[in-house]
Write a structure and sequence with these properties.
The protein is of the alpha/beta class. The chain contains 16 helices and eight strands. The longest helix has 23 residues, at 208-230. It starts with 9 loop residues before the first strand and ends with a helix.
Length: 384
């Protein structure tokens, strides 16, 4: 069966990628809205982007009011500044939150509206202005996807917005920006990328090309994430993790995600936990439930990372992969609901709503093992 395969218009990777993109940025437009957060300004990362734009003689306005999780309110505020400053293209700098917000601002800037929530459940096809995505974490893969995750503050729902037009025209994957990521952020975003890759590979919508990127990402993450966690200044590990996050983003952009993401969004919406952290919290429980629907796929991952051999049957190889995953998350001191400060009593009181919202997102249905809302409730319970 024929399948489309989508990637950003252009990708610049490796050390010095930002400076090497100056000529391309010059062609994007006359004035950019830089969508970022206060930490990127404080760390000096925004100044690096500003200098390149100035060198290219491109104007800019900085919108740095993005919080830990992007909301419809942030999108509206960013849109107002985009219009007020007469910008004609956008640059997203940061983790998934600024990049996703940038995409949603771009959509509204072209359709004349002010409420991004009207796009929930629809295929977005508006003609958007050029977008440049500069990730500062090796995790979300938003620089390579047609998705934007925005919190609907009125209904307390984390929306998954989708449309090919939200693929950035240029992705600048420069590891210099990930060097400043703290160890915990490195773990949460790295495990987020691992979720993307494993889910893409074990999705009902997987395809040959997405498999190539997914497997490569899984192998890189198992090899380099522990090093990036222990020594954030290890340039090789940072470069490889940046590439892995990009690969994982390309993979799930074309194969979609599954159970983990479906269950993660309600947790983020209700408890305001960063998306990568909630994915990391859910990963082991969800994958152990999903494995029986895809022993062959999980088994192949075990062989690819070298913990299983060609002599192992699929189920044995799959179990070895999951054991390796357990060892990896233990080594990295992966987060839990308790360590994230979530109240057990409050969490359990929301299980019915979370299970309903997870199924309504459609992502769990991509899992190769059939599931029900009741199954999701049981998995939420297992987190404690």
């Amino acid at each position: 069966m024929a399948r489309e395969f989508f990637v950003p218009g252009s990708i610049m990777t490796g050390s010095g990628a930002l400076d090497a993109s100056a000529d391309t940025l010059k062609k994007m437009g006359k004035k950019a809205l830089i969508v970022t957060d206060a930490m990127m300004v404080e760390l000096g990362n925004c100044a690096k982007v500003e200098r390149v734009l100035e060198h290219a003689k491109v104007g800019y306005s900085v919108f740095d009011r993005i919080g830990g999780e992007p909301t419809d309110v942030m999108v509206k505020d960013g849109l107002e500044q985009y219009k007020r400053e007469s910008c004609d293209f956008l640059v997203g700098l940061g983790g998934g939150s600024p990049l996703d917000t940038m995409k949603s601002i771009a959509v509204l800037s072209s359709d004349g509206g002010e409420d991004i929530t009207v796009y929930m459940g629809k295929e977005i096809s508006a003609a958007v202005p050029p977008m440049v995505a500069i990730p500062t974490t090796a995790g979300t893969g938003s620089e390579a996807t047609q998705f934007s995750i925005i919190n609907d503050t009125r209904n307390n729902i984390k929306m998954l917005l989708k449309g090919k037009v939200m693929l950035p025209e240029l992705a600048i994957v420069d590891p210099q920006f990930t060097m400043t990521a703290p160890a915990k952020v490195t773990v949460n975003t790295g495990l987020d990328a691992l979720c993307h890759a494993v889910e893409a590979y074990t999705s009902r919508r997987a395809q040959t090309m997405s498999d190539v990127f997914a497997v490569s990402a899984v192998k890189r993450i198992f090899k380099y994430l522990p090093t990036a966690y222990r020594n954030g200044q290890d340039e090789e590990a940072r470069v490889e993790m940046s590439v892995a996050a990009l690969e994982a983003g390309i993979a799930f952009n074309n194969a979609s995600v599954t159970l983990i993401h479906g269950m993660s969004r309600p947790i983020g919406a209700l408890f305001h936990i960063a998306h990568g952290m909630s994915n990391a919290i859910l990963m082991n429980v969800c994958l152990r439930w999903a494995v029986s629907g895809a022993y062959d796929r999980f088994g192949q991952l075990g062989r690819e990372i070298g913990v299983a051999s060609a002599q192992d049957d699929d189920q044995t190889a799959a179990e070895k992969f999951l054991n390796a995953l357990d060892a990896l998350t233990a080594d990295l001191q992966a987060p839990t609901l308790a360590s994230a400060g979530v109240s057990k009593e409050e969490f359990l009181s929301y299980i019915d709503k979370m299970a309903h919202d997870a199924m309504a997102s459609g992502s769990p249905q991509n899992t190769m093992r059939d599931m029900t809302e009741a199954d999701i409730k049981k998995l939420y319970m297992q987190l404690w």
